[in-house]
Structure formats: structure tokens, C-alpha cells
């Protein structure tokens, strides 16, 4: 990853984790907790692609595993966000910009459901059965609703920041191609080959005109002599 991507991702992930732990987790909402960290990973993954999304997801999840008051095995949430970031990066638009909000919102719902199921599945493998006692269906519904309500205020802004930090590579490519086209047209309009050919044609025309005038003068002089 580029340095500007690493710096931006680090700042956004740290801010999202602090807000989630200090604010959202203390709201005591029924069911799941709004996952601001997941939304941050989704926004970055839909701009950086599957590889960047996997790296950002792994780093964000590992930071959440180590940050207090984490009560689960380290690496569990890192695996979840790594998979989610990779999958979200696969649907990165080819043009680099999302045409409608329906696609990202569908990604948010799928990620909320998928991350909850994957987290519960990994927990079942390591002997954590907390999801069964809380009620998995309630966690799935509440996670999808909370993340969907929070997504319009988070995901578009993160995607805009990520594109701006990348200095809009699509625009740079377009401007570079335009500059090449302008240079090529300049060479064609002011190039040596075409211009010299035109000058040669002009010189040839001047020579023929001079010969015609000389012949005409000679004829006129001949008439006068007669």
C-alpha cells in the first residue's frame, strides 16, 4: 500500500475504534453494537480494492482485538474484518466511483450479517458460545439495522477522503492522456516533416512563377526586337 493510504487508514481506524468503544458501546442498545469500525473498513475497501481492503481489515480487526475492553481471543476479529474487507474490495467499481447508493447499502447489510455470522462461527470453533446465549437472530437483525442507519453518515465520507488522498488517479490518467494528445497534435501541426513539405511546395511554386515570368519577359522582348 502507498504511504498516504497507510496514514489515512490508520487515522480513520483509530478514530473509529475510539468512538465505537467510548461512545457507541456505552449506549446499551438492544442487540448488537453499531460497528463503526466495520463501516470504516468497508468504505476504504470499496476504494482501495480487495488487497487493500484485506490489509486494512486485518489491521483494524487486530487493533480491536488488542484494545480494551476486548474479551475474546486475539486475532478473531482480525480474521473477520480481513475476510469482509477482501470481499468488499472485490466489488470496487471499475470507474472508481459509485453510481448509486443502492450498491454500498447492500454491501453494508451483507457485511453486517456476514461479520456477525463469521464472528460467531469462529467463536464456536474456539469454544465461545456467547452468541447462542444472547440469541443469534436478534444479533443479526440489530447489527444490520444499526449499521444500515449509520452507513449514510460514514461510508460516503470515508470513500471521498480515500479518493482525495489518492489524488484521484483516474483524473491523473485522463489528464496525462489529454496532455499526450495535445503534444501529439502539436507535433503534427508544428512538426518538421509536414511543415518542411509545405515549405518545399511553396518554394517550388515560387520557382515556377519566376520561370513563367522570365519566359514571358523574354517573349515580350523578342516581340519588341521584331
Helix proportion of residues, in percent? over 70%
Principal-axes shape call: elongated
Task: Give the tally of β-strands.
Answer: 0
What is the tally of helical segments? 8
- Give the topology string: H per helix, E per strand: HHHHHHHH
- Which spans have pLDDT < 50 for at least 5 consecutive residues? 168-197, 217-226
Structural class: mainly alpha
Radius of gyration: 34 Å
Main beta sheet, described? none
Mean pLDDT: 76
Report how far apart the termini are.
95 Å
Transmembrane segments: 6-24, 36-62, 74-91, 103-127, 139-162
Family: Belongs to the MreD family.
Keywords: Cell membrane, Cell shape, Membrane, Transmembrane, Transmembrane helix
Protein name: Rod shape-determining protein MreD
Topology, pairings included?
Blueprint: H1 3-22, H2 36-66, H3 76-90, H4 102-125, H5 130-134, H6 136-165, H7 169-190, H8 192-225
Helix pairs in contact: 1-2, 1-6, 2-3, 2-4, 2-6, 3-4, 4-6
Question: What labels describe this entry?
Answer:
226 residues; single chain; disordered C terminus; membrane
Summarize, please.
With 226 residues, the chain is an all-alpha fold. It has helices spanning 3-22, 36-66, 76-90, 102-125, 130-134, 136-165, 169-190, 192-225. It has 8 helices and no strands.
